[in-house]
Amino acid sequence: MPTLSTVNQFTERHPAFTAGGLRALIFNEHQNGLAKAGAVMRIGRKVLIDEAKFFAWVESQNQGGNHGN
């Protein structure tokens, strides 16, 4: 079973992400690939984040660059 979190729950567990920043990512989910990754779920008006899929998406954003080498 996936770990699903609201924006506030997610930011409490992962303080590197702010609520505003996370909401901006969710607002632009179709442009930034977050929707395609399946990391955002909606039940009525409630928005839930699938943490495993979200972090897989974060990792995919880091692919292909020269990171400090």
List the helices and strands and how they pair.
Layout: E1 4-5, H1 7-13, H2 19-27, H3 29-32, H4 34-37, E2 40-43, E3 46-50, H5 51-61
Antiparallel strand pairs: 1-3, 2-3
End-to-end gap: 38 Å
How big is the Rg?
Answer: 12 Å
Average predicted local confidence, pLDDT = 92
**How big a fraction of the residues is strand?**
15-25%
Strands of the widest sheet, in order across it, are: 1-3-2
What would you call the shape? globular
Helix amount: 40-55%
Describe the structure.
With 69 residues, the protein is α+β, with helices and mostly antiparallel strands. 51% of the residues lie in helices and 16% in strands. A 3-stranded antiparallel beta sheet has the order 1-3-2. A hairpin with a 2-residue loop joins strand 2 and strand 3. The chain is globular, with a radius of gyration of 12 Å. The mean pLDDT is 92.
Question: In short, what is this structure?
Answer:
This protein is α+β, with helices and mostly antiparallel strands and 69 residues long. Helix content is 51%, strand content 16%.
Q: Tags for this entry?
A:
5 helices, alpha+beta, 69 residues, 51% helix, 3 strands
